[in-house]
Hints:
It contains five helices and seven strands; from the N terminus they run αβββαβαβαββα.
Amino acid sequence: xxxxxxxxxxxxxxxxxxxxxxxxxxxxxxxxxxxxxxxxxxxxxxxxxxxxxxxxxxxxxxxxxxxxxxxxxxxxxxxxxxxxxxxxxxxxxxxxxxxxxxxxxxxxxxxxxxxxxxxxxxxxxxxxxxxxxxxxxxxxxxxxxxxxxxxxxxxxxxxxxxxxxxxxxxxxx
Length: 173
């Protein structure tokens, strides 16, 4: 008798729990999809660059651009900045907007280390409260968002990414 009652409760409870899990997962996927779709155009943001100027989505350079969230202590970020410093001169048509939550002095030292502190197509920005990271639905570091001249998303990646791979996503877009 006890086993029949337990079996009956289980027969009802297990499907209800499974349906609840499926609904939860579906809602999470929908929310993630909405965040990614919101990235098709550059979301609004406001940060300070290392020179104290305000940088927003309205005053970033026109043309192709890559928004990068990095951490100066991240090994992947260091390798990618090394690669960028070696090939940047050949790709002046791409503007790089670099974001991190690290202090200004640390950002400046990082930029100097890779000889990217005085190049015109790289802008270094401080995001002390990680607002850009959260608003852009970033999921790791380094995180790359590439936008073409019409400000449409052409590249999105996180983690170890070859700079050359990012640049090929601008071809024909």
